[in-house]
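Hi support team,

I submitted a single chain yesterday and got back a structure, but I'm not sure I'm reading the token output correctly. Could someone confirm the output below corresponds to the sequence I sent? I've pasted both exactly as they appear in my results page.

Thanks,
R.
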Amino acid sequence: QLVESGGGLVQPGGSLRLSCAAAGAGSTLADYGVGWFRQAPGKEREGISCISPSDGRTYYADSVKGRFTISRDKSKSTVYLQMDSLKPEDTAIYYCAAEDYYYCSGYQIESLYSSWGQGTQVTVSS
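Hi R., thanks for writing in. Yes, this is the structure output for that exact sequence:
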């Protein structure tokens, strides 16, 4: 139901922008809280950011605060994760997840989301 894009290989210190869109013509994420998760090799999946519907409040894990920015486009059909000052430890598969009328309380809990994307690989390496 969700489609991520924008992953790839980038050097340390570089930037990438991930996108998360609802699948299907005319689909929108306007009424959805959307979270971003990542899973590094050999580690558990962790929630790193969330944006709430309507008021657009944003939340970040300490590991990405100040470097990553979550946002929505004006049509609210796509949620972005702008990743700057990337580090090798940011290497992971990144997933977006969504739940309708969800305002990001406890956003790092996976079971709170009913829709997930397939994931996109981000590799930070020189």
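A quick pointer for reading it: The mean pLDDT is 95. Let us know if anything else looks off.

Best,
Support desk
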